[in-house]
Design a protein that fits this description.
four-stranded antiparallel beta sheet; alpha+beta; single chain; five-stranded mixed beta sheet; about 775 residues; about 40% strand
Length: about 775
């Protein structure tokens, strides 16, 4: 183990080796003044060189810190530099100040450590340099304050240091002997940790200097002990964590990775291939290094994360004030996040539902296709022009298109200040209720208002009066989202995102929670409902199917890649894709909706750009192939590729809708296309807006009603689905359709986020009927 530090006058000084990025020239204002001998003398006292090329912290801050150390009002001072991440640390030790100079960036690098400087001499040098600077600067309040500090430093005397020198305590943790199990890798360390000289207050700050203690790191590779590093332990562990983070990111995205990082003499090298096999090299030299090949990622990374966790725990147990050290807190949080990802991919094993008939029986009638699309038929399309006449206009301050709902005979609008309902026929105000800022979700005939503190209010849309209240953990790390499930064989529940990584199902009749689901992934939930089944993708490698009635996980699929996009459902198949949008690898999976049995898994050349689009016979996935965005079609039951055509706009944010055997796409650029689902040919195209001049609505989903296709763009157009001919619109002078709904009578409701609401009804028309 490392020896106890020597007294200040005898301790050897680390060689001053400062990189160019922390060696800066003087500011322009200083270059114009005469040569400053006292400033150079101060640099020589601090660093052993006075060439003027070294940057000092603000001189007034330095003088004030040295004064506090000399008078005994402070035991330690940390002075960051303005042009780099380097820091200067001064610690009181008897009649001396111990100077340390280091880079306080993501991985600390020590340039100079514990250089003893007599406080009396340091006070005089600081005072002389401060007076010299005052003589060469313009008079003003700042110069007056600096001159007073210089005079105090010149007259100050060094108070006797009554506190004893803290003796470091030797701590050993981690693997102290070879592991008895079959673990190929284990780490241990020893460290000389002493109590810090920070004040005992309740504030939290980043203190890198307190983490630069000496120690030793060793490793066991298949039972053989190898010393990996001697000296400062914390930079070595930080380098290992940086390497682990890069490997985890590549592992999640199924990418190959090859890296080599250094911390002093310590080197860590990792090589990951696409199959997930990892080669690891650790050590200070070829003779004292560990090299392990053909490891899996958990076997290589979990011991590294355990080492970092043990180090953080040992530091805090030796000095409780370090629990407020922000650098140590950040290390602990990162270790927990990385461990959660590694364990989620290795522990969450796929399983199937052994009793699928229970769920299958509750799915009658057959489940329709779901995703960002809705299927429909264009039969009975109007043969004549459709004229729409304005029925009413309204204005609501603070209107949000995502919180506007068409519910039966009324429009319900929720704003950050109030909730209100308008009659859908006349626009008359039916009721209004003032509330605090909140997020609103419609649940059948109930409006859920979720406050920033997690309080939920359930209101009846008939009169707006609350009838129940509940509370949940406020959402952290993402926007609150949810959906309403249940009905027929399951109680009606609202499933909401809660906290950082949880879902909660709340009974909309009583406000009582019925079940919770916790994710071991990133908490980026993508939800798809299919009758009694809720498909949940959490941003990790798993897809869970939850029984809404009980909250039980009916089945789970664990994929080699990450599932970050929402799944979709067609007939009795759950369709999901793995791979981040634009990644170099991806896959398309088809699973039985009720049992979770894998029907097919099709490798994709690149990651999918959007969620899959499922129809009754095929699945469409946009991706980048050979530098071009293409739309590929696969068979729904076997996954066999049917065709691949240039993408008509889905990859750039277009909204799809399946109508008969056509896929119609409304793109942000204002182009509407119809794609034949059998051959992939474009049936028709029509430009509805000018992408360079016209505004784009918040939502682009077209609506099929009465055989007519209502398409939101800069205005609303009504098209005949069979050939794309315009049978209605555009509506001149209308609002931008951020919100668009069409009711069963063909009435059109539009809302713009500027606060304007408009309602249009089909105008009567005369038609010649031959007898």
């Amino acid at each position: 183990p490392p020896s106890v530090p020597c007294p200040p006058r005898e301790r050897p000084m680390t060689q001053l080796n400062i990189p160019d990025r922390v060696v800066t020239s003087e500011p322009a204002a200083m270059l114009a003044v005469a040569k400053r001998p006292h400033h150079e003398a101060l640099l020589s006292l601090l660093f052993g060189r006075g060439d003027g090329g070294l940057e000092l912290p603000a001189l007034t801050d330095l003088v004030a810190t040295v004064l506090a150390l000399a008078e005994g009002t402070s035991r330690k001072g940390i002075l960051p530099l303005s042009s780099s991440t380097a820091e200067l640390s001064l610690v009181r030790r008897g009649p001396h100040a111990l100077l340390s100079f280091y880079d306080g960036g993501p991985v600390p690098q020590i340039f100079l450590r514990d250089r003893p400087i007599p406080l009396t001499r340091l006070l005089h040098c600081c005072s002389a340099a401060a007076r010299e600077l005052c003589e060469q600067t313009t008079a003003g309040p700042a110069q007056t304050a600096a001159r007073r500090l210089a005079e105090r430093a010149a007259c100050a005397e060094v108070a006797i240091d009554q506190l004893p020198v803290a003796v470091p305590t030797l701590r050993r943790a981690g693997a102290l002997c070879p592991p008895r199990d079959d673990s190929p890798l284990a780490f241990g360390f020893s460290a000389q940790i002493s109590a810090t000289d920070s004040p005992h207050d309740l504030s939290s700050r980043a203190d890198v200097h307190a983490l630069l203690f000496d120690g030793e790191v060793w490793g066991y590779a298949h039972g053989r002990r190898v010393t990996l590093a001697r000296g400062p332990v914390f930079p070595v562990v930080m380098r290992m964590i940086n390497a682990a983070r890069s490997i985890v990111e590549a592992w999640e995205n199924r990418r190959a990775a090859n890296l080599k990082l250094k911390a002093g003499d310590f080197v860590i090298a990792m090589r990951l291939d696409r199959t997930g096999e990892l080669a690891l090299t650790l050590g200070a030299s070829p003779s004292g290094a560990i090299t392990l090949a053909a490891l899996d990622v958990p076997s290589a990374l979990l011991p590294i994360l355990r080492l970092a966790s043990d180090l953080a725990r040992t530091i805090v147990s030796s000095d409780r004030s370090q629990s407020r050290n922000l650098r140590l807190v950040a290390l602990r949080d990162e270790v927990r996040a990385l461990r959660r990802v590694v364990r989620a991919k290795s522990d969450r094993i796929s399983f199937t539902n052994q009793d699928p008939d229970r769920l299958r029986a509750s799915a009658v009638p057959p489940i329709p296709s779901t995703a960002a699309i809705h299927t429909g038929s264009a039969a009975g399309a109007p043969s004549a022009k459709l004229r729409l006449s304005l029925r009413f206009r309204a204005e609501v301050d603070g209107l949000d298109a995502a919180s506007t709902f068409l519910c039966g005979d009324r429009l319900v609008v929720a704003t950050p200040r109030c909730q209100l309902a308008l009659c859908r026929d006349s626009g008359e105000l039916l009721w209004i209720r003032h509330v605090a800022a909140s997020t609103s979700v419609m649940a059948g005939s109930a409006l859920l208002c979720v406050g920033p503190d997690g309080e939920i209010t359930f209101s009846d849309i008939a009169d707006g009066e609350p009838y129940a209240r509940a509370r949940m953990t406020p959402r952290v790390g993402g926007a609150l989202s949810g959906m309403v499930l249940g009905g027929r064989t399951a109680p009606p529940v609202a499933v909401l995102t809660e906290g950082r990584d949880r879902l909660v199902a709340i009974d909309v009749r009583t406000g009582e929670p019925r079940w919770r689901f916790r994710s071991r992934g990133r908490g980026n939930f993508k939800l798809t409902r299919a009758g009694r089944i809720l498909l949940v993708a959490c941003g990790d490698s798993t897809l869970d199917a939850i029984d809404v009635a009980t909250g039980d996980i009916a089945w789970r699929w664990s994929d080699p890649g990450r599932i970050v996009l929402a799944p979709t459902v067609a007939r009795d198949m759950a369709i999901a894709v793995s791979g981040a949008p634009g990644a170099d690898r991806g896959a398309l999976m088809g699973l039985d909706l009720f049992s979770g049995q894998l029907a097919f898994r099709k490798e994709l050349e690149t990651g999918p750009l959007t969620s899959p689009i499922a129809t009754d016979h095929s699945v469409l996935v946009p991706s980048i192939e050979a530098g071009e965005v293409r739309l590929s079609s696969f068979d729904l039951t076997s996954g066999a590729r049917r065709f691949s055509v240039p993408d008509p706009g889905i990859g750039e944010g277009g909204a799809p809708l399946v109508v008969d055997q056509n896929l119609v796409i409304n793109t942000p650029g204002g182009q509407m296309s119809a794609l034949d689902l059998t051959t992939g040919e474009i049936r028709w195209q029509r430009n509805l807006a000018d992408s360079s001049r016209d505004d784009v609505p918040r939502r682009l989903e077209p609506v099929l009603r009465g055989g007519a296709l209502f398409v939101p763009s800069a205005s609303v157009h009504v098209l005949r689905p069979s050939d794309g001919s315009i049978i209605g619109g555009p509506i001149e002078g209308s609002v931008i359709p951020d919100f668009m709904r069409v009711d069963e009578r063909g009435w059109l409701y539009l809302a713009e986020e500027s606060g304007h609401i408009e309602a249009y009804a089909p105008a009567p028309s005369l038609r010649l009927v031959k007898g």
